[in-house]
Amino acid sequence: MTSFTRRAAGKTLAALALAGAFGAAAPAVAQEREFRVGYQKSGALILLKGKGTLEEKLKPLGVRVKWAEFQFGPPMLEALNAGAIDFATTGESPPIFAQLASPNFAYVAYDPDSSKSEALLVQGDSPITTIAGLKGKTVAVAKGSNSHYFLVKALEKGGLSYSDVKVAYLAPADARAALQNRSVDAWSVWDPYYAAAEAAGARALTDGQGLVRNYQFFLSDKRFVEKNADILRVTFEELKKVEDWVLKEPKTAAAELAPIVGIPAPILEKAILRQGFGLKPVTKEIAAEQQKIADTFLELKLLPKPINVADAIVEVTP
């Protein structure tokens, strides 16, 4: 390259840099972002997925939504902590273990009391008619799920301790089969599995009313929240809309969403009616209630060391 060519090239690069600094360069193409959402066959997120509005609202921000289904909470939060998803929702217990595993774990919002949406079930023709009758029996539960803590509280209601029963840690699909073939005597579970089991003839010894709150938490990673608050604000707006809709028109919502989410309409409607809706930021009071759950698991030696739930509360600011 001649000295003239080098000088010309240098001037061209300088001009391009100067033009870029003053906005005269060709507009840059915004890099597409991916929003990876974990969901279960329960709660508001599966309803939002079925409605399909989140994709439409995030598209102008250059955001593509990717959905990932999980059978229950703990595996979903393992994926969140591993960086495989960005956003998730579970009941009360899974976040306790997830926070222990990651300092970046974050609570970002919650839905209110859904205590009616989990139950301790037996077969319809089971001779067991009281919680006390479970002493020495085998109870299935998904380890670390919201129904794990509910089981602890339900046993207390019946005058039993956690060690008074044999606990079989099973995922929902396996637990349902175990209850049906009578390899377990009872099953602690949440909707829509609860509603589906009822439809198949199972009987509830108790639900969660008066025992647990069963809040539904919306969860993320502190680093994701810091960089993508705009995505979360749009997501919350759409969640509120779909929650308002299902509250006002549960039968219509169940009929419309049933084929999309893969749950029969009568079962989905029952689950919707037992679900608490009304998205809110997580308060100190809610964090204190979560702390009680963490302390209970610590006492039972299900949690290896203490955690401070308040450390994981993150506010999504404008």
From TrEMBL:
Gene3D superfamilies: Periplasmic binding protein-like II
GO cellular component assignments: membrane
Keyword vocabulary terms for this entry: Signal, Transport
The UniProt record lists the keyword Transport: yes
InterPro entries registered for this protein in UniProt: ABC_SsuA_sub-bd (IPR010067), Solute-binding_3/MltF_N (IPR001638), TAT_signal (IPR006311)
Coiled-coil regions listed: none
SUPFAM superfamilies: Periplasmic binding protein-like II
Record's signal peptide: 1-30
Gene Ontology molecular-function annotations: ATPase-coupled transmembrane transporter activity
All copies of domain Solute-binding protein family 3/N-terminal, residue ranges: 34-249
NCBIfam families the UniProt entry points to: SsuA_fam (TIGR01728)
Family classification: Belongs to the bacterial solute-binding protein SsuA/TauA family.
Function: Part of a binding-protein-dependent transport system for aliphatic sulfonates. Putative binding protein.
Protein name: Putative aliphatic sulfonates-binding protein
